[in-house]
Design a protein that fits this description.
With about 500 residues, the protein is of the alpha+beta class. It has 9 helices and 25 strands. Strands 5-4-3-6-2-1-7-8 form an 8-stranded mixed beta sheet. The longest helix has 19 residues. It starts with about 25 loop residues before the first helix and ends in a 9-residue tail after the last strand. About 35% of the residues are buried.
Length: about 500
């Protein structure tokens, strides 16, 4: 037997409508302002007043007694008040629903608090349309009681909608939430604090979401704005949906010793963009969002191509070139290598960038402070400290960087000597003796350096010989270097060598 089933909404779902939204001021302002914009309003007014009976005037600043918040617009108004409690139905025309994915759940943001709604529909023939008013409590949103709609001569004139609700938050918190909602909103928003006598209404400050961008371009109903060294925090909003901002994971591009490039997106007319309903606080992860991120990255590349000093990493340079965008490669400069210090409180500014010569040695490993300091002393004595430069993986792939020799291994050997000669200390018990020498050998096979293969007697990358040259010598009591002699030069190019004499107690 074959049966069919079809999706439906069970009537008990209405019992949970008060939990669809957290009923915060941010949620309420975001949803009501979006409805005003869709109703083709020219401006929105937010008024905060004392309730009819206020015992303590100081409670406006502390939030101890509820304040009345009223949001009024001059839009098209609401012809049928039943849509307020018909979740999933919104009354908007089909074109707007398709363009913005209007879901008809936004009014539920007021379900937990309750509200009073007054509206007058826009006249189509020039005759004034009667206004109406309805008082809604949580039980009305839950479907537990019928709400009565009354005629209301004081409804917004000539048309528009007014929504009032009580807020226990302090006046400062209400104003802050209103400012956040109005910051990137396309319509002017006026804030009127009627809790203080003599306070005039004022328009809340607004700013274009892409203000400060160095490059802008359109893509599938969005406008990308590219920024150079824009300060932002963790998960700061990067997408603006008509004043409602959210994080969508748009890319950033870190350059090599240069600027950080980021991108923001402003919605113009983008029906392909899907936001998680009903609150629209995040974007739906789908193919369009992936394409949007890829397009945003290319917008950054185009902005970098026009910059006089873009300094792209090789990966970004390659991706841009594959997309037909030519970006100038970074210059051949690196930071000189300096040894680390075993002091967590030590802070030093990084070394300044310097031009790289063909004889530079890239420190392709990060030695611990004792090993790094030993190497630095040896390098200074042997005269090649100025050739050591810091490695930068972002440059791997550029020909000038790949041609440089790498330091991939550091080997330390300590030999003890007694009575002026090397050998084993045989005296019974513990006997101090002088350390004869400390030899350091470092280098890598030239053929494998670009792949990061370490230097070993038989190179792991190609089984070739090591390209370092190790020297040995004895140290006199004065600590000066004695005559050095090559021990194992191999067949490759000598990369560097040194002997650093030192004193140490050795016990047999």
């Amino acid at each position: 037997m074959t049966r069919t089933i079809r999706a439906r909404i069970h009537e008990t779902a209405v019992k949970r409508v008060t939990r669809i939204y957290a009923a915060t001021l941010a949620d309420i302002f975001a949803e009501t302002l979006q409805n005003s914009r869709r109703a083709d309003a020219a401006r929105v007014r937010i008024s905060v007043s004392d309730p009819v009976a206020r015992l303590d005037k100081s409670a406006a600043t502390t939030g101890e007694t509820p304040l009345t918040v009223t949001i009024t617009d001059d839009g098209a108004g609401i012809a049928n008040p039943a849509v307020l409690l018909s979740f999933g139905e919104n009354g908007w025309d089909d074109a707007l629903v398709e363009r913005e994915d209007a879901a008809g759940f936004g009014f539920a943001s007021l379900a937990r608090r309750g509200c009073a709604v007054s509206s007058r529909p826009r006249s189509l023939d020039g005759e004034m349309v009667p206004g109406w008013r309805v008082q809604l409590a949580p039980e009305h949103f839950l479907g537990e009681a019928d709400a009565e709609v009354h005629a209301h001569d004081e409804a917004p004139y000539p048309c528009g909608t007014s929504i009032s609700y009580e807020a226990t938050e302090a006046i400062a918190a209400i104003r802050n939430a209103a400012e956040n909602a109005a910051r990137h909103y396309p319509l002017p928003v006026v804030f009127d604090d009627a809790t203080e006598e003599g306070t005039a209404a004022e328009e809340l400050p607004r700013r274009a979401f892409l203000d400060g961008a160095v490059h802008a371009e359109q893509w599938r109903g969005l406008v990308f704005g590219v920024f150079r060294n824009r300060r932002d925090g963790y998960r700061d909003p990067d997408l603006n949906f008509f004043g409602l901002t959210l994080t969508s994971g748009l890319p950033k591009v870190e350059t090599v010793h240069g600027a950080t490039w980021s991108v923001l997106a402003d919605v113009d007319d983008c029906p392909d963009l899907e936001l998680v309903l009903p609150a629209r606080k995040e974007a739906v992860e789908n193919a369009f969002l992936k394409d949007m991120r890829d397009a945003a990255r290319l917008a950054i590349y185009r902005a970098m191509a026009a910059d006089p000093s873009p300094r792209p990493a090789f990966e970004d340079w390659t991706r841009a070139r594959e997309a037909g965008i030519e970006i100038a490669p970074p210059p051949a400069v690196l930071r000189p290598w300096r040894p680390s210090v075993a002091d967590c409180n030590d802070w030093r500014d990084p070394a300044k960038l310097a031009d790289v010569g063909t004889d530079a040695l890239v420190m392709d490993r990060d030695p611990e402070p004792p090993e790094a300091q030993t190497l630095w002393r040896a390098a200074e004595r042997d005269g090649f400290a100025s050739r050591l430069v810091e490695a930068d993986r972002r440059l791997e792939g550029y020909s000038w960087y790949d041609r440089l020799d790498r330091v991939t291994e550091i080997t330390v050997r300590v030999s003890g000597m007694g009575n002026g000669g090397a050998g084993t200390l045989r005296a019974p018990g513990l006997r101090p003796a002088r350390a004869g020498l400390l030899s350091l050998c470092f280098g890598a096979c030239r053929r494998c350096a670009a792949r990061g293969a370490g230097a070993t007697p038989a190179c792991r990358g190609c089984a070739g010989p090591r390209v370092c040259q190790t020297r040995s010598g004895s140290a006199g009591s004065s600590g000066r270097r004695a005559g050095a002699m090559p021990v194992n030069s191999g067949r490759g190019l000598p990369v560097g060598d040194s002997v650093w004499p030192m004193r140490r107690s050795v016990f047999a």
